[in-house]
Design brief:
The protein is mainly alpha-helical and 433 residues long. The chain is built from 20 helices and no strands.
Length: 433
């Protein structure tokens, strides 16, 4: 059986079809072996997320580090189910929902995701422009416009097979936060204790931070992007799925989510060791964290932090806009693919332009960036549990996936993640001030 699997893998690899190199674990080149999972995981750490992680570390020190190992399996189970659905069916998440559930469910879910994504793009563009201004004296408005235009044009003009390589290399920008963590004076004994022996205060402040961390790590836009990029990599004539494909997909998704969660951990450790340790307990944005970090850890650390903001912004904003375009296009049955030329998928690319355009307008009407983050968190909080429940239901369907439906362990972990996202706001309401 193993021999037949390897033979099948060689056959489809020779045809240049579905993940020809990701399926071969022994192939050369780390980034060549990875597919959409690593980009999805890295995009999870967007500038607004960096601000959230910095705030957690500055506010409670090492106190929330235990959330990282807790969130990793929950995030992995969610993204693995989305990837499984796309891998087996060859369809994006919105297209699957459209074919299996009432239309109003699809429209409501896509509307919430599109609104949250656009608000998130606005916040990320503002953070990137502010970070650039701290490195080079460029006006905030010019910076926002510059980044919006560059990112929109590159996503539209560059074909997917080239664009995806650029996104994978941008993942390296996350290493800036690992470097900053080792520059800081970290109490590693306390890090280990806080990570594996958590002390939880049942207060509203604790649950507010936990909701923010969970919402940033398990975000609906990642569901649609993960599924859509599995379809992109699969191509029009993808082969019959076998165990090798599923195992390679799992490794890819786990690598991505492990990367995303580890960077969250690194940022919280850095903020705790520098900002919190020096009495700085309130950070409103990622660029605020960089400014506060510089006099404590040095210009090198502050510069690395700023460069990281720019790098992950260049990665995450196209993912946000792209996931919106995929979701809307699949809802209305439009042609959708980043591999298509603009003239071949005008409506699809129009959604990307519209998403960037609305984000620009939000930046110009005087709304505070922190309000963007609050609104995005609320919209994600409304849509995430419902979408996770839908993904759980679809991924366990033998009618839809046959023998590749999620097993008992995957169902239990994804069910726990869905339940946790749904009940956290309830715990916040019941918690003491």
């Amino acid at each position: 059986m193993a021999g037949r699997g390897r033979k099948h893998l060689r056959n489809f690899a020779g045809r240049g079809e579905h993940h020809p190199v990701r399926g071969n674990i022994r192939s050369a080149g780390y980034f060549h072996r990875l597919g959409p999972g690593i980009v999805t995981g890295a995009a999870d750490d967007d500038p607004s997320g960096i601000g959230t992680y910095s705030q957690a570390g500055s506010q409670v020190g090492y106190g929330m580090l235990w959330a990282a190992p807790l969130l990793l399996p929950l995030a992995y189970a969610t993204q693995e189910a989305c990837a499984r659905l796309a891998l087996v069916t060859g369809k994006g998440l919105a297209a699957i929902i459209k074919a299996t559930l009432p239309r109003w469910v699809l429209i409501l879910a896509v509307l919430l995701v599109a609104l949250a994504n656009t608000v998130n793009i606005a916040a990320d563009l503002a953070s990137m422009a502010a970070a650039l201004r701290l490195i080079v004296p460029v006006d905030q408005t010019i910076g926002v416009i510059l980044f919006a235009v560059i990112l929109a044009v590159s996503e539209i003009v560059v074909p997917y097979h080239r664009y995806s390589k650029v996104l994978r290399w941008l993942c390296l920008s996350l290493l800036a936060y690992v470097a900053v963590m080792f520059v800081a004076q970290v109490d590693w004994g306390q890090v280990v204790k806080s990570t594996f022996l958590p002390k939880i205060d049942f207060t509203k402040a604790t649950f507010e931070l936990l909701i923010a961390l969970a919402g940033t790590t398990i975000s609906p836009y990642l569901f649609f992007w993960q599924a859509a990029e599995e379809v992109e990599e699969r191509g029009d004539q993808g082969p019959e799925v076998d165990l090798t494909h599923v195992q390679a997909m799992r490794g890819d998704v786990f690598s991505g989510m492990l990367t995303g969660v580890f960077i969250m951990f690194a940022i919280m450790v850095t903020a705790a060791a520098t900002l919190h340790a020096n009495g700085i307990l309130q950070i409103n944005s990622a660029e605020d964290a960089a400014q506060a970090l510089t006099p404590i850890a040095g210009k090198f650390a502050g510069l690395l932090f700023l460069l990281g903001i720019l790098g992950v912004g260049l990665l995450s904003v196209p993912v946000l806009a792209g996931s919106t375009a995929y979701a809307v296009a699949e809802t209305f049955g439009w042609r959708e693919s980043l591999e298509l030329a603009p003239r071949q998928a005008r409506a699809f690319y129009s959604i990307i332009v519209a998403s960037m355009g609305v984000a620009l307008i939000l930046n110009f009407i005087g709304i505070p960036p922190m309000y963007f983050l609050f609104l995005a968190a609320v919209l994600n909080g409304l849509s995430a549990p419902a979408l996770m429940a839908i993904v759980w239901w679809l991924a366990r369907s033998k009618k839809l996936l046959g023998g590749w439906a999620s097993g008992p362990v995957s169902q239990v972990v994804l069910g726990a993640a869905t339940l946790a996202m749904a009940v956290l706001p309830v715990f916040w309401l019941l918690a003491k001030n």
